[in-house]
């Protein structure tokens, strides 16, 4: 029984280590596009153990009625940050097209694609929660 318990703890710890959390641009309850954390574990169709994930951010110019911009942003032609979880290869390709994906960034650590200061508290929360989970697992394994 102890071996099964240790295996379950190991799998949970491994899953928390090998997922990537990125900021993505998503609609909130009012329909406004906001930066929110997303976990690669929920997007295994996009990237997985054989297709590495990447966090990406870039600036885009509104005006083509894209879904990342509001009607007003499209009318005013503003430039705004876009955040996404994608594959490492796609991120590299986006970075190569600087005229479309301006100031693009590809990174590979949790919540690394924050280009503004508004998400710092979420970054700290996710880092602390991961450390706490790993500490609890270590204590539980030691006591077995």
Sum this structure up briefly:
It contains four helices and five strands. By secondary structure, it is an alpha+beta fold. A hairpin with a 5-residue loop joins strand 1 (21-27) and strand 2.
Task: Categorize the overall geometry.
Answer: elongated
Note poorly predicted spans.
7-17, 118-128
What is the radius of gyration computed over CA atoms, rounded to a whole number of angstroms? 18 Å
DSSP summary: helix tally: 4
End-to-end CA span = 11 Å
Share of residues in helices = 25-40%
The order of strands across the largest sheet is 4-3-5
H and E string: HEEEHEHEH
Mean pLDDT: 75
Structural class by sheet pairing and helices: alpha+beta
Number of strands: 5
Largest sheet: 3 strands, antiparallel
Percentage of residues in strands: 25-35%
What does this structure look like?
The protein has 144 residues and is α+β, with helices and mostly antiparallel strands. Helices cover 37% and strands 26% of the residues. It is built from 4 helices and 5 strands. The chain has helices at residues 2-17, 71-76, 88-95, 120-142, and strands at residues 21-27, 33-39, 53-61, 79-87, 102-107. The strands form 2 sheets. The protein has a 3-stranded antiparallel sheet. The chain has a two-stranded antiparallel ribbon with strand order 1-2. A hairpin with a 5-residue loop joins strand 1 (21-27) and strand 2. The longest helix has 23 residues, at 120-142.
């Amino acid at each position: 029984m102890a071996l099964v318990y240790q295996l379950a703890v190991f799998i949970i710890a491994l899953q928390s280590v090998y997922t990537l959390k990125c900021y993505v641009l998503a609609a909130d309850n009012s329909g406004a596009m906001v930066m929110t954390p997303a976990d690669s574990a929920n997007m295994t169709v996009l990237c997985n153990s054989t297709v590495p994930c990447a966090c990406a951010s870039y600036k885009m110019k509104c005006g083509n009625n894209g879904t990342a911009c509001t009607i007003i942003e499209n009318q005013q032609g503003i430039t705004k940050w876009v955040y996404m979880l994608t594959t490492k290869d796609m991120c590299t390709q986006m970075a190569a097209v600087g005229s479309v994906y301006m100031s693009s960034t590809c990174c590979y650590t949790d919540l690394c694609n924050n280009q503004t200061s508004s998400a710092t508290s979420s970054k700290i929360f996710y880092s602390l929660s991961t450390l706490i989970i790993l500490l609890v697992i270590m204590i539980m394994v030691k006591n077995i």
